[in-house]
Specification:
This protein is of the alpha/beta class. It has 15 helices and 22 strands.
Length: about 500
């Protein structure tokens, strides 16, 4: 296929392209070839100031009537127009995302379909928001009536990761705009190209200036000042636990609300009553999808001892059949990881596991047929103990660790023995067992007889060090709404608490 050039873009502020104040740019490295294929602008705190001010003006323009207090169907019109443009540009956007992030093209096409679907979903919720205003509250005193208003929080800062560059951004952009907020989006510097294309779509559909501003740049130079800015009313962050902690610290200085979707080390329990091939495919998909770079990856595999030997053998056979290639090649199922830094980090995890006594049963290095690019074979590691780094820490790469168990209680104990609690999965033909295990998992998301399916309509988020707050579904809209109680005194009688003056 013909590879399109990466468009040269500037920062998107107040409805127009603007060069960074310091005029710096960051190279875009294709992770498949290690070639520089373009540059993105590098925003700094000076650009953050301009963007936040633009968002603040957009929020209050015409006393809020242009956006924040506008009817929900007006905002829905823009969200639907954006969705239509994403669909129109789907092939181009998917190709750019594969070039920028290394994700297989079949995945990025799917992602673009989800992006459009997310805008459509929140357009529906924006339209329904007005009808839900003034919801009555039942009170114990007849002389009072009370109702609730849901109002946009204000200017929001959205800091997003590189593993789903556009989709994860839209998980925040779509509901925040549907709610009536205005936003400053700061995507990861490792994969920002499609977020800048989203800005171009917003410009094309005539989104009011300042409603969405897109700043690309380094976290320390753009993300940190955004999180700490006094005119930003809320921060929504997806990324690592370490960075999330810094974002929370900055926001805490102003008692600013935050929502956090952080790392994970999710378990998958496979019992001994399953179809081994079906379970093997889900086990590999749950860890190797998106090149293994998923916060919810079920990278801790717990297999019942009765089937462990045969099941692990099947896992290796299935892994050998995974096509590892340039993500634009037909049938690619595992592309490169996003950057040289990630590549080195993952290999270091694998090396440490080996030095601690684990067995690298399959993979663990660069595929022999790929001499360039940040490629790592699908890796399966056995003989793992619960104290090993590879078992406890998030690798964020195509690395699956396996332990065995003998009882349901032991499996649950091993599954929950983690600082993280984003996702968890169980595969079994016993429905009652699956129900018990689902309730016992310490996780925000549970999959039964599958791993990783995600739907715009269902809540997404974790517990423990995997963060708090929920994205997607109606819960995602609530992230960006403030609840206001209004109470009326309806009696004609005086209150009568104080003795009236003579």
């Amino acid at each position: 296929m013909a590879i399109p050039p990466v468009p040269t873009r500037q920062l998107f502020i107040d409805g127009e392209w603007r060069e960074p104040i310091l005029k710096n740019r960051i190279p875009i490295v294709n992770p498949s070839t290690q070639d520089v294929i373009g540059h993105i602008p590098a925003a700094t705190k000076e650009d953050v100031e301009v963007a936040v001010n633009a968002a603040r003006r957009a929020f209050s323009r015409n006393k809020g009537k242009d956006w924040a207090k506008a009817p929900g169907d007006l905002r829905a019109k823009y969200l639907r127009a954006i969705a239509a443009k994403v669909t129109e540009r789907k092939s181009h956007l998917a190709t750019l995302e594969s070039l920028d992030s290394g994700k297989p093209l079949d995945e990025t096409v799917w992602d673009m379909e989800d992006v459009a679907g997310c805008f459509e979903f929140y357009a529906d919720l924006a339209e329904g928001l007005d009808a839900k205003q003034k919801a009555p509250v039942s009170l114990p005193m007849e002389s009072f009536k009370s109702y609730v208003l849901k109002q946009p929080i204000g200017v929001v800062g959205l800091i997003t990761p590189w593993n789903y560059p556009l989709l994860m951004a839209v998980w925040k952009v779509a509901p925040s705009l549907a709610a009536g907020c205005t936003a400053v989006l700061k995507p990861s510097e490792l994969a920002s190209v499609t977020c800048l294309e989203l800005a171009d779509i917003c410009r094309e559909v005539g989104l009011p200036p300042g409603v969405l501003n897109v700043l690309t740049g380094y976290g320390s130079e753009a993300g940190a000042p955004l999180a700490a800015h006094p005119s930003v009313d809320k921060i929504a962050f997806t990324g690592s636990f370490a960075t999330g902690s810094k974002v929370m610290t900055a926001a805490a200085q102003l008692v600013k609300p935050v929502s956090m979707e952080l790392g994970g080390k999710s378990p998958l329990i496979v019992f001994d009553d399953v179809d081994l091939d079906k379970a093997a495919e889900w086990a590999l998909f749950g860890c190797f999808w998106t090149n293994g770079q998923i916060c919810s990856a079920t990278s801790r595999l717990l297999v019942h001892e009765n089937i462990a030997s045969e099941f692990i053998e099947k896992l290796v056979k299935w892994s050998k059949n995974i096509k590892v290639s340039d993500p634009l090649e037909e049938g690619c199922r595992l592309g490169p990881v996003v950057s040289e830094g990630q590549y080195e980090k993952i290999l270091k995890f694998i090396s440490s596991a080996k030095s601690e006594g684990a067995t690298i049963l399959h993979g663990g290095s660069r595929p022999e047929h790929l001499k360039k690019g940040f490629f790592i074979e699908p890796t399966i590691i056995t003989d793992v103990t619960t104290s090993m780094q590879i078992w406890r820490e998030e690798v964020f790469g195509p690395v699956l660790c396996i332990k065995t168990f003998s009882s349901e209680d032991e499996a649950i104990e091993l599954a929950n023995d983690s600082h993280y609690g984003l996702g968890a999965a169980v595969i079994s033909n016993d429905a009652e067992r699956c129900d018990r295990v689902s309730q016992d998992f310490e996780a925000g998301i549970v999959w039964i007889n599958c791993s990783q399916p995600c739907f715009t309509q269902a809540p997404w988020g974790g517990v423990k060090r995997s963060g708090f707050g929920r994205e997607l579904g109606e819960w995602g809209l609530d992230n960006y709404l403030s609840v206001k109680q209004v109470t009326l005194y309806t009696s004609n009688d005086p209150w009568g608490w104080y003795k009236p003056p003579c």
